[in-house]
Amino acid sequence: MEHPLNYILPGLFGLFLCIQLYYILFVYGRLNRYSPPDLIPDVDYPPLSVIICARNEEANLRLYLTEILEQDYPLYEVVVVNDCSSDDTKWVLKEFQERYKHLRTVAIAEHERFNHGKKFAVTLGVKGAQYEHLVFTDADCFPQSNLWLRYMAQQFTPGKSIVLGYSPYVETKGFLNTYIRYETYQTALNYLSFALKRNAYMGVGRNLAYTKSLFFKGKGFAAHMHIPSGDDDLFVNQNATRDNVAICIHPDAMVWSEPKRTYKAYKQQKKRHFGAAKAYRTKHKFALGFQAASTLLFYLLALTLLIVQPQYWYIALSGYLLRLLLLAIVCIPIMKKLQVGKLATGLPFLDIYHVVYITIKGLGASFGKHVSWK
Q1: Which residues, including other chains, have CB under 8 Å from residue 45's CB and lie 6 or more apart?
Q2: Of 79, 222, 295, 341, which sits most exposed with the smallest number of CB within 10 A?
Q3: Closest C-alpha to 167, from 289, 257, 268
């Protein structure tokens, strides 16, 4: 008869397996079962202000601004905040204004003693907007269709003041691109699933909407203006309630973006994101930390069980395969909804790689310095 202590490791492994199955079935499962609604006829669409902050984005504005300005929407304006650009952004915007009367600009001049981040530019854009309902994106983004604004605005039903959109990255060659698209999907899987659980904790500024009154009611970014990033996720984190958030993931409502092309640029981007996450509400930091830790411990316990108690190899293997099977059943349909279905073939490897990457970068960000948005 085996000593009772011999069952501790298999028991712990079983515990964390159960925790993982909870997240897969009861958190991600909500997004799996969610069907994005089509456009509803005869909707009374509210006027919209689309806000874009641009710093030295001359090339991207030439490429993508037309697709923002030619949306099929009854009444809207596009407000571009020219944030201290040293290229020809000013003249590009003047060219566009000659053709599109609903394009407005806000210019910020460089100040030798005042260095500001994106939140200052966003704040000026909000103040300069004419309308109550605001939609945000970036200069390097383009909507999948000219119905993007209709789908986003349709989610402003009574009581909803925040709409979380989704913004995938364009597919190119190489592992960096593969991982960026997977990490973006994984981030969306989390924040969209938690939003459906009525516990929204973040949004992505490439495709995000909220009301001007909510912005001023929450005093804008005053509580975290000292943090360079977080104009999107920290705002949602501090202003979302159980009832005021909707999601919008219809294919025609997605906004695409060009991903980082080098590991250095991607590292800087993630450093900004991790820096903002440290300012999340305590309950969200705990929930996200526990989720990440439980996944890491699941893998570590499986490996430890194989090494320390190889006689229980079948427990480690069957637990791993059960989790992987359910992950595939629940998440592959979500990957297709979020237009990253090609990544499903690499799911076993990408899942492990993501856990290791997030753990290392998360620990590094705890001791790192803040970086600017541009």
Answers
A1: 73, 74, 75, 150, 153, 154
A2: 222
A3: 257
Distance CA 254, CA 60 (A): 18
Residues near 170 by beta carbon (within 8 Å), at least 6 away in sequence: 256, 257, 258, 259
What is the phi/psi pair of residue 269, to 5°? -60, -45
pLDDT in 10s for each residue of the chain, 374 residues: 556 667 899 999 999 999 999 999 999 999 999 999 999 988 899 999 999 999 999 999 999 999 999 999 999 999 999 998 999 999 999 999 999 999 999 999 876 556 678 999 999 999 999 999 999 999 999 999 999 999 999 999 999 999 999 999 999 999 999 999 999 999 999 999 999 999 999 999 999 999 999 999 999 998 888 888 889 999 999 999 999 999 999 999 999 999 988 888 888 777 777 777 888 999 999 999 999 999 999 999 999 999 999 999 999 999 999 999 999 999 999 999 999 999 999 999 999 999 999 888 766 655 555 445 45
The DSSP letter of residue 24 is I
Q: Which domains does the chain have, with CATH numbers?
A: 4-32+284-364 (no CATH), 36-184+195-260 (3.90.550.10)
